[in-house]
Amino acid sequence: MRTAAVIGTGLIGTSAALALTRRGISVHLEDTDQDAARTAASLGAGTTEPADGPVDLAVIAVPPALVGKVLADCQRRGLARCYTDVASVKAGPRGEIAALGLDTVHYIGSHPMAGRERSGPLAATADLFEGRPWVLTPTADTDTETLNAALELVALCGAMPIVMDAADHDRAVALVSHAPQLLSSLVAARLEHAEETAVRLSGQGVRDVTRIAASNPAMWIDILSANAGVVADVLDDLAVDLAETVAALRALQAADEGTRREGAAGIEAVMRRGNTGQARIPGKHGAPPTRYETVTVVLGDQPGELGRLFGEVGALGVNIEDVTIEHSTGQQVGHVQLAVAPVAARGLAAGLRERGWGVRA
């Protein structure tokens, strides 16, 4: 691949363009919002000048409902030799593309499983897709050249290709992305009119659950509109579980000891199911999940403190597998939770204490 076009310079489109330009690909940017395109260009994502001839690959980075229309326009103009879209829903756009009678030999659907709660070109980063799954949904018509172009795009962006059927993809993302977004928003919505004293008690648990609730509603309406039925099915199943959990909690308040035991058993059952489900989420580099030990370090809110901590962990010969920062409300300190291999945890805690850090393992 030497040349590419990116149509749509939001978070995903601009991030893909940045990744491609970093690899030496000439990228031509298009967007109905000229300011967004110019902003992406100013960040080094490419040029807003049109290509002299057909580019090797056009990446259509628009909402699902617009994919068919934009692909039709691109093919009419002969913009590229091969085409892909990066919309987060695949079956709907595929159906529209077929209904429009577009060329499906040189088109392949795709979806990088990456994003942020922020949107727009200013939120884009060249490494957004590094190590992330990137789903490809070829049809029986998709030719080898187009598949190879999409695989090269994935490789240039540092992602991992996964080939799936479009409908299977939509069911999967409803479960692991779309429904969690709504659940996060529902939990965060409970905080809207909560007492200030309650909100100030917010710890890492509620921060983790509500992080993605900061996402752009307009963007999510576009996504959910294209996958509404499947997401509703997931939420229907969750509603059954929620009703059973509410009943179990009510039972814990009962005067009868037998009823209380049934309530406790119900809560334990749902939490154990949660343990089992959470353990299935892939771990580092997509490998089976690994259980790490957590070493918590008290960190002052001064420039360079986090870098100094990481440097001393490295000097102790310990690899940080994951890190979480929990901020203390109203205080100029935070707690950095370092996930490390179990065999390294005790030595790391002792080594950091010797260097003057406040540590609890």
From TrEMBL:
Give GO MF terms, alphabetically. NAD+ binding; prephenate dehydrogenase (NAD+) activity; prephenate dehydrogenase (NADP+) activity
Q: Which residues form the Prephenate/arogenate dehydrogenase domain?
A: 2-283
Catalytic reaction annotation: prephenate + NAD(+) = 3-(4-hydroxyphenyl)pyruvate + CO2 + NADH
> What pathway does the UniProt record associate with this protein?
Amino-acid biosynthesis; L-tyrosine biosynthesis; (4-hydroxyphenyl)pyruvate from prephenate (NAD(+) route): step 1/1
Q: What keywords are annotated for this sequence in UniProt?
A: Amino-acid biosynthesis, Aromatic amino acid biosynthesis, NAD, Oxidoreductase, Tyrosine biosynthesis
NCBIfam families attached here? PRK06545.2-1, PRK06545.2-3, PRK06545.2-4
Kindly provide the name given to this protein in its UniProt entry.
Answer: Prephenate dehydrogenase
Record lineage: Bacteria, Bacillati, Actinomycetota, Actinomycetes, Kitasatosporales
